[in-house]
Amino acid sequence: MAWWWIALGALLALAAGLLGRRLADAAAARRAWRRLGAAAEPARVDPDALAALAEPARRFFAWSLADRGEAPTAAEIRMAGELTLGAGERARHLPMTGYQILAVPHGFVWICRAGSAGLRIAGSDGLAEGTGWTRFWLLGLLPVVRAQGARDMARSAAGRAVAEAVFWTPGALLPGPTVTWTGVDADTARAHVHMGGHVHELDLAVAADGAPVSVTLRRWSRENAERTWRLQPFGGTVDATMRVDGVGVAARITGGNGFGTDAYAPFYRAGVTRLRFPSPDTGGAASSRPSPDARGR
Fold first, then answer.
1. What confidence tier does 103 reach under pLDDT thresholds 50, 70, 90?
2. Which is more confidently placed, 90 or 75?
3. Dihedral angle computed from the Cα positions of residues 167, 96, 79 and 267, in that order, rounded to the nearest 10 degrees
4. Three-class SS of residue 156?
5. Model-level pTM?
6. Is 195 within 8 Å of 172 (Cβ atoms)?
7. Residue 40 is inside which H or E element, if any?
8. How far apart are CA 72 and CA 64, in angstroms?
9. How many CB atoms lie within 10 A of CB 179?
10. Domain count, the chain
11. Are 42 and 279 in contact (CB under 8 A)?
12. Are 122 and 137 in contact (CB under 8 A)?
């Protein structure tokens, strides 16, 4: 009988340790969120600099930041949609809700809950102060993945942040010392964005009115059969748009690895349910309420 008590004590100690680690992960994500919100500074819109851009980029900023003297560079987004785990016949499509702060060039925090019944995962992806991480838990207690790093993971996370800036914080991509734009064709512009010690090159396709259609970039990733870090196609489409405080943003997106190639299989579908632009005086609080003028396009 003594062995049963010993085994039970060991299991309880293990569960307590895992619970403590999960709570520490959640607390770390909240701290990073607050730091990113406090770092948000609006960018000045320079009409002369925009006039000198390639026509597709000029069209995009005219649509997204029409008649603004300043533009927000950070956003808090609430979203709902679907995550796909696996591929082919083994793919699992999980309902998802997410909460994100995006603040290029400082980073982002994405807090996600996905799944139902016996397959529930929750955790966060993020990049803050030069460190990228992925921390997800099954059923709130079992670690699925807990990884972080200041090199490969940070570089990969920065690529995601730059791509999503097109969707939700176009002010962060205004031309300047860390962002340059060139033309590709009549409807595509290419941005070179310096972030985290690397240059992230993305192609933005726009509609006739300047609304974003798709984003493509080569992202540092190990989502391949060899599990080797390398540059790979990544991106997504803007399926609907809206305006918040006069800024044009994505309302619905679809994305994944291999975008623009035959290997593309979208794993991320999300619709924005709330969006606001934080500023240093609001502190980027995770409990923020939606902007009252957010609406469908």
1. very high
2. 75
3. 10
4. helix
5. 0.88
6. no
7. none
8. 11
9. 20
10. 1
11. yes
12. yes
